[in-house]
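Our preliminary data section would be incomplete without showing what the modeling component actually yields. Below, a chain of 181 amino acids is followed by its predicted structure, encoded as tokens that our downstream tools consume directly.
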Amino acid sequence: ALAFAVNRSPGADALEPYGMEAGAYMLATLHRPATVDDPDTLSHVLSALAQLSQPVLLPLHPRTAHAMRRYGIEASGAVRVIEPVGYLEFIALLNHAAKMVTDSGGVQKEAFLLDCPCVTVRPETEWVETVEAGWNRLVDPTAPDLVNEIETFAPPVGKRPDVYGTDVARTMAQAIQNLIS
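Predicted structure:
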């Protein structure tokens, strides 16, 4: 599904409206209640994003937008808030980002599969294999050194491990065919 989306995404053209260059920005998503429903946590994460050395595109989730209005919190510094984007545009933005910062579940795996280092601002993840492979760093969203944790994270040098297999859909279809034959 991800390969299908990448092939149908606008590619680097998706960067043009935001004035970004491939590999020269970070992409961020925030929407989980633990991150955005507490004003101190939301403010801390947005403050950390604002201090990063690269621009940060933040497609603003409605839940996050509501929380920011409710608490009077604004994005500043490196953060460039943009309207929510569709899946194909999001995949294009992720595919060209230098790094992903997220509290999302699925985005962690998509970042891994697109060779995009990911910092997950959560204390745990469903995708432990991305952390074990060194391509995803878990950081508590209230960590006092959140800026440093994001800035210094880099995956191991060399090829990303293939923890999910290759040509999985074809392999699964063949396995099913073998079972019913």
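Strands lie at 26-29, 56-59, 79-82, 99-102, 118-120, 136-138. The CA atoms of residues 168 and 180 lie 18 Å apart. Preliminary results of this kind motivate Aim 1 of the renewal.
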